[in-house]
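Bumping my old thread because nobody answered last time. Still need a sequence for this structure:
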């Protein structure tokens, strides 16, 4: 078994899907803030890691895997959840990449933007969000299964879930326009190991006012620095 350490910041963003997958697949891991793992400020750490951004997954205290979708594919392989048919695997990848493209500007806006800036970013991203959500809804309907690639969730499902979930912090009513996606979200949330994770993760509060994560009972401003 590999030792797994997921390194990230104080944000509800790219560390969600890998943690959901690891909980679902019962893979042991540690989640560490950048400053706790590297014992240094981000500006010192940044130039020393593969693509100068987080998350990274540190495997066996030796290998640093960068890029969220690479991390998801690696974890999926470790967990034996990877589709064996190359065509199915490629279609799953297309879902994964299409969901990952929702990251920006959705996640930074929810985690950091406030006031007028939040509202204007929200208004300008809604058409693009609407189009991509419609694509994902169609993929689910055409697949005719409970999850994107069958009766069990795999990497792409957790990545899609995260971006649908965080859209509710942008606009609580938006996801509801997509009934099949809403059903998908409920199905993911019904999985016990996943709901345990969702219910115990740091709460994201004061979105669009002064966003914070409540970690061990203390509210910390979202960000890349130790507080
Ligand atoms: N393509 C990367 C994007 C990673 C990314 O944008 N990371 C941000 C945090 S969400 C980051 O490291 N920001 C600090 C910086 O760029 O200096 C992925 O999918 O993992």
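Sorry it took so long. Here it is:
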């Amino acid at each position: 078994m590999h030792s797994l350490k997921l390194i990230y910041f104080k944000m509800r963003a790219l560390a969600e899907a890998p943690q959901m997958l690891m909980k679902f697949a019962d893979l042991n891991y540690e989640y560490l803030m950048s400053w706790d793992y590297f014992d240094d400020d981000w500006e010192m750490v940044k130039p020393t890691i593969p693509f100068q951004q987080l998350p990274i997954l540190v495997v066996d205290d030796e290998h640093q895997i960068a890029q969220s979708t690479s991390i998801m594919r690696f974890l999926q392989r470790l967990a034996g959840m990877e589709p064996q048919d190359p065509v199915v695997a490629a279609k799953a990848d297309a879902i994964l990449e299409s969901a990952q493209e929702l990251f920006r500007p959705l996640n930074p806006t929810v985690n950091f933007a406030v006031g007028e800036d939040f509202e204007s970013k929200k208004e300008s991203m809604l058409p693009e969000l609407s189009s991509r959500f419609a694509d994902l809804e169609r993929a689910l309907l055409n697949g005719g299964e409970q999850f994107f690639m069958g009766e069990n969730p795999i990497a792409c499902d957790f990545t899609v879930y995260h971006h649908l979930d965080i859209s509710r912090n942008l606009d609580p009513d938006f996801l509801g326009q997509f009934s099949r996606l809403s059903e998908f979200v409920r199905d993911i949330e019904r999985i016990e190991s996943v709901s345990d994770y969702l219910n115990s993760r740091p709460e994201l509060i004061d979105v669009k006012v002064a966003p914070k994560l409540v970690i061990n009972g203390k509210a910390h401003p979202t960000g890349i620095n130790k507080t």
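Strands lie at 4-8, 30-33, 56-59, 63-66, 203-205, 212-215, 218-221. Let me know if any region looks off to you.
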